[in-house]
Every structure is written in C-alpha cells, then in structure tokens.
Amino acid sequence: MQKNSKKGQQGEKPEAQHKKERKKERKKETTMTIIMGGGVEEEGEDDFVPTVSLTLYETDFDQFVNKLGEAYEKYGFVILENHGVAQTDIERAFRLSKSFFEDLSQEEKEKYHLPGKGGARGFTAFGRETAKGATKSDLKEFWHQGRDLPTKGHKFEKFMPPNVEVNEIEGFTESAKHIFYSLDELGNRVLQALAVYLKQDRHLFDDKIDEGNSILRIIHYPPIAEESAGHVRAGAHEDINLITLLLGADEGGLQILRKDGKWLDVNPAPGCVTCNIGDMLQRLTNHVLPSTTHRVVNPPKERAHIPRFSMPYFLHPNPDYVIDTLESCVSEDRPNRYPEPISSDDYLQERLKEIKLK
Questions:
Q1: Is 324 exposed, middle or buried (CB count within 10 Å of its CB: 0-12, 13-18, 19+)?
Q2: Edge-to-edge strand order for the sheet containing 234-237?
Q3: What is the pTM of this model?
Q4: Concatenated DSSP letters for 72-90?
Q5: Burial (CB count within 10 angstroms: exposed 0-12, middle 13-18, buried 19+), residue 5
Q6: DSSP label at 278?
Q7: Are 72 and 265 within 8 A, CB to CB?
Q8: How far is CA 139 from CA 77, 103, 130, 230, 305, in A?
Q9: pLDDT digits 0-9 by tens, 75-114
C-alpha cells in the first residue's frame, strides 16, 4: 500500500501537485470565517481576510450587515461565498477568455482597441496601464465590458460608449455580458448591506448605481519574460470605484497591505468572490470604509511560465452622481476630509489620467 501511494505521488503531473498545494494553502490561510451563527472561528494565529456567506443576506440580514461592515472596517476586503453566480458560468467565462487572449493573434486583438476612449470598452494591450505613482507599466492586457444603455440618445451616452462584439470566439461576448450583470446584482446586495451599516436607508444606493458606469475587466497576465525585470503583474494601487468584485483564477499573487505595513496573501477558495472597497466609497464614507492598497506580485521563478487570468468587476455609480461625504460618517473625532463634493465622472477622469489610460 505504501509503495503504491509513493508511486502515485511521484507520478503526479506538476499542475495537479500545484492544485493540491494551493488547496492546502487556502485551507490554512482562510482560517477566520464568519459563520451563520455570528461567531468567528479562529483556527490559526495569523491574520486573514474573513469569508462571509451570502446566505445571511436572506436568512439574517442584520447579521450580514454587521459581519460585512466589521470586515470592511478592518481590512477593506472580504471574501464572499454562496454568492449565487453559478460555477459553470464562471468556468465558461474563463475558458472563453483564455481563448481570446491566447488563440487570437496580436493583430486580431488590436482591431478591438478603441483609440481615445481611455480603455472604456474593448481591448487594451499589454504594458499600457501603469499603477498610480509607478514608473513602469503593469504586465497585463485586458478586455472591458460595460453596461448596455437601454435606448439610443440616452443621457449617459457620452460617458458610456457601446460595447464591442468579438467575432472570432463564439460565446465570448454573451458570457462577458452574463458575468457583468451577475456581479452587478451581487454588488447591489453588498451595497444595500453597507448602506444599513452606515446608518442610511437600505436602498440608498439603488437609484445611484442602476445606470452606473461599471466595468467588467477580463485580465490576462502572460508568462513572465526575463526582460520584464522591474515590472510586476499589477503594481500596488487602490481601486477608483465604489466596490470591486473579483473572480480569481487558480494562480495566486493577490496581496493586500495591512495596517501594520505587512503584505497579506489573499487566496480565496475556488468559486468565491473577493470584494473590496474602492476610493469613491472611501471618500463618501470619510474613510470609515477604507480603500485598501493591493497588488498582484510576480510568481516564483518555477511558475513564471504560467499565465494568470482574473475578472474584477468595478462597480461605479451613475456618471452624474455627486460624491458628497455622508453626514453619518462625520463627527468631532472624524472631521470631514472632503468638504468639496465631486461628480463621479470628474473623479473617474482624474484617476484615468493618473494611471495613464488617458
């Protein structure tokens, strides 16, 4: 028996062995889980991003509100499970995205680039985006899927260009659209809970995000080349929007910056959604909900040849929404950091220039 077991281990393919190792890492690292009964299970001494189940949204909304809010105040990040986005749909989206980035030639992909749009729709090539304050570009290329406006001549047409249809990969556009609206619905539930946590009406955000300038970004991080010294897959940054909902792939690399200055690995279980606070919500809440710095680090040398795929959904408010600090987030001990309101689109345009997409 022992001999056969040993032989089986030696015969495993590297990828299979890596998946086993990643599973062990996740089991070890996701050691603080918010559970339905309201307790916190601590299985280790280390500090980890909490996991919250969306079943609480239906069964115990107050509990969902408290656990979500507490996690965000501490980390700015949370991992969501039982979120309602079907695993089969997630896997299909990643499969079709892999086909787009790896099967199409650079020339075929470039025809989906829209000059002068700040990368708002379609394809953005490798090495174009740079993290705020960084001098070297990120090692990624990506696709942007946005909201379809209901009518021609819509008041937000100047902010939200039409989506781009991919012809070569059957099902790509349909799949991207499905994931976009699935995460849009999930984001609305998260924001309802956060509104209550902030002592606001549960539906505070409903009519402020229903035509939001949100983006599904499908990212391909290619294998790391030797000439890429000094570049990283995604430099340390904060997100621009209200919240980000991330579908991650099997390759790790995501890290968040803790308050003590240490980097913390984030390795959610397969199928989970990682959700973080963006700068717009941080500004609106006067930093009650922090927008946490995060990055995607390069893999170890032995895995540098393996690409990485991920799908963040950047949930934005409607373009005409004015970000004005909530009164419930201002006090004598917490004076208003942002006395001057700003429209969400003006804020967005400023930030796109900072990351060199405009």
A1: middle
A2: 234-237, 294-296, 254-257, 263-265
A3: 0.84
A4: HHHHSEEEEES-S--HHHH
A5: exposed
A6: -
A7: no
A8: 23, 19, 9, 10, 13
A9: 999 999 999 999 999 999 999 999 999 999 999 999 999 9
